[in-house]
Design a protein that fits this description.
Length: 123
C-alpha cells in the first residue's frame, strides 16, 4: 500500500476514533437513558483505533523506521502512549460526562500531541 494511501487511512482512523469518543460523551451527557443503537459510537471508536494503529505501523514501515533490531524512534513510542490514552479515553467519556468541557479539552490535547509528534519528530 502506498505511503499516501496509508496516510489517508491514518487520518480516517483518527477521525473515526475521536468521532466515536465525542459520540459517547454526547450520549452520556443526554442523561441516563440508553438511545437506540447506542453501540454505534463504541464500535466507531474501536474501528478507528484499529485503523489508526495498523496504518501507523504501515507508515513506520514505509518510512524505513523498523529496520533490523533498532528500537522505534522516541516520537513513535510517544505516539503509542497517545494511542493507549485514546483507547482508555472512552471510559472518561462514559464516566465523566459532567466535566464534558475538560474531557473535550483532553481529547483535543491528544490530537494536537499526536500531530505535533508526527510533524516535528522532536526526538
Ligand atoms: C491518537 C493517536 C494518533 C494521532 C492523533 C496521530 C496523528 C497523526 C497525524 C495528524 C499525522 C500526519 C502528519 C503529517 O501530515 O505529516 C500522522 C502521521 C504519522 N503517524 Fe500518527 N497519530 C496517532 C497514532 C499513531 C500511532 C499509534 C503510530 C504508530 C504506530 C503513528 C505513526 C505515524 C507515522 C509513522 C506517521 C507518518 C509521519 C510522516 O509522514 O513523516 N501514529 N499521525
Amino acid at each position: 500500500m502506498s505511503y499516501q494511501t496509508l496516510k489517508i487511512l491514518h487520518i480516517a482512523g483518527l477521525a473515526l476514533t475521536f468521532m466515536g469518543l465525542a459520540g459517547v460523551l454526547g450520549m452520556k451527557m443526554n442523561g441516563g437513558g440508553r438511545p437506540k443503537r447506542h453501540w454505534v459510537f463504541f464500535v466507531v471508536h474501536g474501528v478507528g483505533l484499529l485503523l489508526l494503529l495498523a496504518s501507523g505501523f504501515g507508515l513506520v514501515d514505509r518510512l524505513g523506521l523498523m529496520r533490523g533490531t533498532r528500537a522505534l524512534p522516541g516520537w513513535v513510542q510517544a505516539k503509542l502512549v497517545i494511542w493507549l490514552l485514546a483507547g482508555a479515553a472512552v471510559s472518561l467519556a462514559s464516566r465523566l460526562s459532567r466535566y464534558a468541557e475538560l474531557v473535550l479539552l483532553f481529547f483535543t490535547a491528544l490530537v494536537v500531541a499526536g500531530a505535533w509528534l508526527a510533524i516535528t519528530k522532536p526526538f
